[in-house]
Amino acid sequence: LSMKLFFQYVGCFFAFFSVGLLIISTWTDCWMVNADDSLEVSTKCRGLWWECVTNVFDGIQTCDEYDSIYAEHSVKLVLTRAMMITADILSGFGFLFLVLGLDCVKFLPDEPLIKLRICLASGVMLLLAGLPGITGSVWYAVDVYVERSSLLLHNVFLGIQYKFGWSCWLGMAGSLGCFLSGSLLTCCMYLFRETSSGRLHSAYSLRKGYSSAATVVTNVHLPSSQTATSKMYAVDTRV
User: Fold this and answer.
1) Opening angle at CA 112, ends 109 and 118, nearest 5
2) Where would a tag sit more exposed on the chain, N or C end, judged by fewer CB atoms within 10 A?
3) Is the dihedral of CA 106, 111, 112, 118 positive or negative?
4) pTM exceeding the 0.85 threshold for the entire prediction
């Protein structure tokens, strides 16, 4: 039982920080950052929703939101948005299910098998959340790197060259955390599910055996006079 609680708490720890990292990554503005910091008087960051410029000397930041979501955007931007939002939703529900499945939470306290199944469901959700999260963040980073490398290879200088920033790193870290938490919950909780199922089956068989034995003992010790009286009462009632 202590090992079960340990795995639950470790999974909950990783799930909590993974959900936070994914949400921060999705809604921050530094998926791309200019690579020539030494030549610039400002730091330029591009996110999934807006672009921000921070003055190096006074730290003043100005942000410009992109056009409407229905406007024409690059495939990289649109798909990364969709995958990160999907990862946020799945990981959020996975963490919520995990909290409900913890043994220390007073939710269905008399149904340990159902709580284990809730933990398994949360593990599956976290695994599913890690897939679009890691796909979106890694694909975005690789696309930025390939674009920058191609410009350098062809000696093309556009004034500003970008590399992937800390928001992209947070997306990768959150996705890996979801994979770790989901794997821990699905594998370890499944083992405890088999053990709990066997215990519940044994307890049910034991209770059934006691019930049958009690019935036999009651019938054996039933006095003959009471049996005869019951039969006569039944005959009189039918008449």
Assistant:
1) 100
2) C
3) negative
4) no
Bridge-based pairing of strands 32-34 and 162-164 is antiparallel
Enumerate domains of the chain plus CATH numbers: 1-201 (1.20.140.150)
Q: Please choose, from the candidates 134, 133, 105, the residue with its C-alpha nearest in 3D space to the C-alpha of residue 118.
A: 105
Instruction: Transcribe the chain into DSSP letters.
Output: -HHHHHHHHHHHHHHHHHHHHHHHHHTSS-SEEES-GGG-SEEEEE-SSEEEEEETTT--EEEEE-S-TTS---HHHHHHHHHHHHHHHHHHHHHHHHHHH-TTS-SSTT-HHHHHHHHHHHHHHHHHHHHHHHHHHHHHHHHHHHHHHHHHHTT---S--EEE-HHHHHHHHHHHHHHHHHHHHHHHHHHHHHHHHHHHHHHHHHHHHHHHHHHHHHHHTS-HHHHHHHHHHHHHHH-
| Amino acid at the residue 141 | A
Looking up tokens 């821990």, which residue turns up? 184
Give dist(CA 77, CA 72) in Å, integer: 10
Q: Which of 82, 109, 105 is nearest to 26 (CA)?
A: 82
- pLDDT tens readout for residues 91-141: 999 999 998 888 777 777 777 788 888 888 999 999 999 999 999 999 998
Q: State how far the Cα of 22 lies from the Cα of 86, in Å rounded to an integer.
A: 10
Taking a C-beta distance cutoff of 8 angstroms, is the pair 113, 204 a contact?
A: no
